[in-house]
Write a structure and sequence with these properties.
alpha/beta; Rossmann fold; 5-stranded antiparallel sheet; 5-stranded parallel sheet; 10 strands; 31% helix; binds adenosine-5'-triphosphate; binds magnesium ion
Length: 215
C-alpha cells in the first residue's frame, strides 16, 4: 500500500506541485493520465525516493520513506520497487543480460534471467548490447529489469510510449499478467486512454492536484 500525504514539490517559483492525499491499495492497478508537464513523473519519482518533496510524507506499507537517508531510500527502492523509467535508464554499452545482472551485484533476489527474457520475448537478444536494440526492445528490457526482482510495487512511466498500439497492448498484457499473480500495487502513467482499460482505477492527474496549490 502506498499513501501520499500533503506532498508538495517546489522546483522553482513557476513550478509548484501540491498533491491531495492519495492512497494506492495492494492488489490494484492504477492508470494516471494527464497533460505533459503536469507532474506525473515527479509523483512516481517521489514515491520511488528519487525526488525529495519539500513537504509531506509517503508511506509504503509501514515505512515512511521521505525521512530515510538517500542511501536507505536507494536500498529500499532496489529491493521493493520495480520502476520502468520514461527514458528507460539502461546501460546502453552493456548487453541485455548484464543490465539484468547489475541487480544481482547489488545482492537483490532475482528470478532466473532466462525465465524473464522468455516472458518479455527477448531470449534471442540476451547477449546483444542495448544500444543495438529497437525502442520497443529497450522498453521490454526495462520491463524485464523491473520485474525480475518480483517487486512489491511496479511504477511504469509511459511503458507503451515508444510502441505502436498493438505492441503497446502486448506490453500492457504482460505487465498485467505479472500483476495478477501478485498482491502488489501497480501504477502506470499513460497518455493513451485506450490503455486505461488495464487499470482498476483511472486517475486524472489534474484531479489530485490541490487547486492553486502553490506553497
Ligand atoms: N529537476 C527538475 N528541475 C526543475 N523543474 C523540473 C524538474 N523535474 C521536473 N520539473 C518540472 O516539473 C513539471 C512536471 O514535470 P514532470 O516530468 O513530472 O511532468 P510529466 O507530467 O511527467 O510530463 P510528461 O507527460 O511530459 O512526461 C514540469 O514543469 C517540469 O519542467
Ligand atoms: Mg513524465
Amino acid at each position: 500500500m502506498i499513501r501520499v500525504k500533503n506532498v508538495k514539490k517546489d522546483f522553482n517559483s513557476d513550478t509548484r506541485i501540491h498533491l491531495k492525499d492519495i492512497e494506492f491499495e495492494n492488489g490494484k492497478t492504477y492508470a494516471i493520465l494527464g497533460v505533459s508537464g503536469s507532474g506525473k513523473t515527479t509523483l512516481l519519482n517521489i514515491i520511488a525516493g528519487i525526488v525529495n518533496p519539500n513537504n509531506g510524507e509517503v508511506f509504503i506499507d509501514d515505512v515512511e520513506i521521505t525521512h530515510l537517508s538517500q542511501k536507505e531510500k536507494d536500498n529500499f527502492r532496489l529491493k521493493n520497487i520495480g520502476y520502468i523509467f520514461q527514458d528507460f535508464k539502461l546501460m546502453e554499452e552493456m548487453t541485455v543480460e548484464d543490465n539484468l545482472n547489475l541487480l544481482k551485484i547489488e545482492k537483490i533476489k532475482c528470478i532466473d534471467i532466462d525465465t524473464i527474457l522468455e516472458q518479455v520475448g527477448l531470449k534471442s537478444k540476451r547477449k546483444t548490447k542495448v544500444k543495438k536494440l529497437s525502442g520497443g526492445e529497450k522498453q521490454r528490457v526495462a520491463i524485464a529489469r523491473a520485474l525480475i526482482k518480483s517487486p512489491k510495487i511496479i511504477l511504469a512511466d509511459e511503458p507503451t510510449g515508444s510502441l505502436n498500439y498493438e505492441k503497446g497492448l502486448e506490453i500492457m498484457e504482460l505487465l498485467n499478467e505479472f500483476h495478477k499473480k501478485s498482491n502488489h500495487v501497480m501504477i502506470f502513467v499513460t497518455h493513451d486512454d485506450r490503455m486505461a482499460k488495464f487499470a482498476d482505477e483511472v486517475i486524472q492527474f489534474e484531479d489530485i492536484l490541490v487547486k492553486g496549490g502553490a506553497l
